Amino acid sequence: MIKSYSNSQHEILKGILTLNGLGAFDADVTYGDGSFYKHIPEPKVKYDISPQKEGVGAIDSGHLPLPDNSVHSLVFDPPFLTYVRAAREHNSIMAKRFGGYWTYEELSNHYTDTIYEAYRVLDHKGIFVIKCQDIIHNHKMHCTHANVIEWCKGMFRLKDLQICIKPSKMPIPPAAGYKPKVQKHARIHHSYFLTFERSKK
Length: 201
Prior knowledge:
By secondary structure, the chain is of the alpha/beta class. It has four helices and ten strands. It has one domain: Rossmann fold (3-Layer(aba) Sandwich), CATH 3.40.50. The strands form two sheets. An eight-stranded mixed β-sheet has the order 1-9-10-6-5-2-3-4. The protein has a two-stranded antiparallel sheet with strand order 7-8. The protein is globular. Residues 90-98 have low confidence and may be disordered.
């Protein structure tokens, strides 16, 4: 049985391929280090704005060099963090590992540009997989998965939603001389895999 949740993104990706009758994804436009493809076949087309491996085209996912209606499945796994670019100058592990945006508006622009491009390059009933995660900054909740569903309206229909649960982590004890912070939000230990199907114009 393919479940709607798992603690393994590899299990989720295998499930998405199976449920949609795919042997492999046609294109991944945010390929990164290729960690998605440890247990499933590599996509035919691989792009990333900052390639980490040979054979990956240096392409912005909002401007794809693909003809209209030329692929049947596409994967988009963008950064989910905001307000972290400046942290790269201070060797922030999270910023270096995941990348990020100056503001949530920059994140939304990148997501929506890519959604429009995905609509252009996918064929009718093409499969579009987006991995995303909600974030909290300055005690404000940014419900990205709900925003993505809204941004896709009119172009894609939501076909499936799966949740990848991270292992729990113990809280970090405060440094000497600092008061512990009061928690005001539940810790986010999950991400979403949203599967969309391209609609007619």
